[in-house]
Design a protein that fits this description.
By secondary structure, the protein is of the alpha+beta class. The protein has 6 domains: 5-100, DNA Primase, Chain A; 106-235, DNA primase DNAg catalytic core, N-terminal domain (Alpha-Beta Complex), CATH 3.90.980.10; 241-355, Dna Topoisomerase Vi A Subunit, Chain: A, domain 2, CATH 3.40.1360.10; 360-427; 453-527, no CATH class; 534-593.
Length: 600
């Protein structure tokens, strides 16, 4: 989606960084900046900093940083076009595609278009399907909540959707890639993938439909038929209803996770608008990270049957490792959240949340229950329970759990403390497994050395990018000795015209480590008035010029020594240039000393 830099600047100028970030992070003013807990990694002490004047943010813990678009891309897990589209909608600025750009629209965009057409078809079909509407009424789901979630119906026809998509101008090859239709076996044409099912769209955080879940209206198997993996949807990476629940979850500082689509709808209808569904049973690492972006506290409300309990146990360690505080809501055996709400109303489910147990209590209870069932020994239970307790970060809370565990097992506290805990699988995976390899390298958060003149110049240009054109006329990238700063300056100088029109300098870089470094550099810039900034820039440019003179003087000295060593005379022009440069440098040094001493 090619977009002019001026349009990007207009969009970011209309959306205030502080206002946007405050939706997701609780920020408190500290001096000239705002601080809060970083939304991108688990922490207890605030290391996330935002400068409203510079419209930049930086985390001193995980070293992430950037501008408004950078925050949206990372927080919403979007690419640049998606982030820009979200911000443009918020700013009320239309993004018009040129005919050429429309022809080159990516496969992802084409799939979004096909899914949107399918959602409209399913919604229309629901209005005329007496059977589907009777099923929703039987489940107690009102039209308002169904419309909010985009619920529809796939008629029990072989080519209903295929023909509708063709009429809408959708390429059926793209529809097949999106998982909406399937190619006929042994003959040309396509047939509908979903037939005779209640259809529940799955949205990304920018509101595009990325997949569908189809629920049978009777005893047909499978009970749920879901979109297979596509270029815009990967199973286990998304959470149903998060696009609607995230603001409520941020306001309540908690999110409720249930198993089923319709459980999620029932809770929203009852007023629990911070509810989402896991699109399966046990949660994945990607889903945990999606949830942690929204809230720190999580209620697990999986079904009370054996499968639901097993899914709860499998999910807990991974959620805790991602920094979430997990509470387990114990549903009655054989009941799900939908049943609780329909039978007891909002108060019944609220009471269930109030009686939720901390994840440690739940896991210890699970371990102790094995003794009653005579499936294991006390020592085995103790080792497993101690592995659970070892994950508790607060030492006082950890000590209290050990004492409670000793009472539960009827053993002495000293004997329990002597037991070696079982190795926690999730902890072992974190120590050197796949997840640790997948995390990007971060720069050290230790103290940084004093700024070199090269970093100082880049710092000025990050804060005042409109000065780049003027600086580029005086300083070249060949004047830099630091390879990273040389490349940064080269990119800035090459885009001087765009920066003069208001384009963000951070938007020119994609490497996360470089972005974090440049953001930190910009935020560390002293707050100077324009005249003081001009004076600082002149001083920096003068230092670059002096370094150029010093390098040339060194080259002349080496050339003269080489001639003298060879028994040759030094040409007069060479000697004159050397003497002139030496005098110039002595004069510059004298001027600098006079400036430091001040007037007599």
């Amino acid at each position: 989606m090619p977009v002019a830099g001026s349009l990007v600047a207009e969009i970011t100028a209309r959306v205030d960084l502080l206002t946007y970030v405050s939706q997701y992070v609780t920020l408190r003013k500290r001096g000239r900046e705002y601080v809060g807990l970083c939304p991108f990694h688990a922490e207890k002490t605030p290391s996330f900093s935002l400068n409203a004047e510079k419209q930049l943010w930086h985390c001193y813990g995980c070293q992430a940083g950037g501008d408004l678009i950078g925050f949206v891309k990372r927080y919403e897990n979007l690419d640049f076009p998606q982030a820009l589209r979200l911000l443009a909608a918020r700013a009320g600025i239309p993004l018009h595609e040129t005919p050429d750009a429309a022809r080159k629209r990516s496969l992802r965009e084409a799939i979004y278009e096909a899914n949107a057409a399918a959602r409209a078809y399913f919604a229309d079909a629901l209005r005329t399907s007496q059977r589907a509407r009777a099923y929703l009424a039987q489940r107690g789901l009102e039209p308002e909540v169904c419309e909010r979630f985009g619920v529809g119906y796939a008629p029990d026809e072989w080519e209903g959707l295929s023909k509708a998509l063709a009429r809408a101008g959708i390429d059926l090859g793209v529809a097949a890639t999106a998982g909406l239709v399937s190619a006929r076996t042994g003959e040309a044409g396509y047939v509908d993938f979903f037939r005779g099912r209640l259809m529940l769209p799955i949205y990304n955080l920018t509101g595009e439909v990325i997949a569908f879940g189809g629920r049978s209206l009777g005893d047909e198997e499978p009970k749920y038929l879901n979109t297979r993996n596509t270029p815009v949807y990967t199973k286990g990476h998304h959470v149903f209803g998060l696009h609607l629940a995230r603001r409520s979850a941020a306001a309540h500082e908690a999110i409720i996770v249930v198993e089923g689509y319709l459980d999620c709808l029932a809770l929203h209808q009852a007023g629990f608008t911070n509810a989402v569904a896991s699109l399966g049973t046990a949660l994945s690492l990607q889903q945990a990270r999606e949830l942690h972006r929204v809230a720190d506290n999580l209620y697990l409300c999986f079904d009370g049957d054996a499968a639901g309990q097993a899914a709860t146990v499998r999910s807990i360690d991974m959620l805790v490792d991602e920094g979430l505080h997990v509470l387990v809501a114990a549903l009655p055996p054989g009941r799900d959240p939908d049943d609780v709400v329909r039978e007891g109303g909002k108060a019944a489910f609220a009471a269930l949340l109030d009686s939720s147990r901390d994840w440690t209590e739940f896991k210890i209870e699970q371990a102790c229950s094995r003794i009653a069932e005579r499936f294991t020994s006390k020592s085995e239970v103790a080792r497993e329970a101690l592995a659970v307790i070892a994950r508790v970060r607060d030492p006082i809370e950890r000590d209290l759990y050990i004492k409670a565990m000793a009472r539960r097992l009827d053993v002495s506290e000293s004997a329990l403390r002597a037991v070696r805990p079982a190795v926690a699988p999730a902890a072992a995976a974190t120590a050197g497994g796949e997840d640790s390899k997948s995390r990007p390298d971060r720069r050290s958060s230790g103290p940084r050395p004093a700024l070199s003149v090269e970093r100082e110049l880049v710092q000025v240009l990050m804060v005042r990018p409109q000065l780049t054109q003027r600086v580029a006329a005086c300083v070249g990238s060949e004047d830099f000795s630091d390879p990273e700063m040389r490349e940064v300056y080269r990119v800035l100088a090459a885009n001087a015209d765009a920066l003069a029109r208001g384009e963000s300098p951070l938007g020119l870089f994609t490497d996360e480590a470089v972005l974090a470094d440049l953001t930190h550099l910009a935020l560390a810039a002293p707050p100077l008035s324009p005249p003081d900034e001009e004076e600082r820039l002149a001083r920096i440019v003068a230092r670059f010029e002096r370094r150029r003179w010093e390098r040339r003087l060194y080259e002349l000295d080496a050339e003269m020594n080489q001639l003298l060593t060879a028994g040759k005379s030094v040409p007069e022009p060479l000697r004159d240039e050397y003497n002139s440069l030496a005098a110039t440098l002595r004069g510059a040094a004298s001027d600098k000393a006079d400036q430091k001493e001040g007037p007599p």
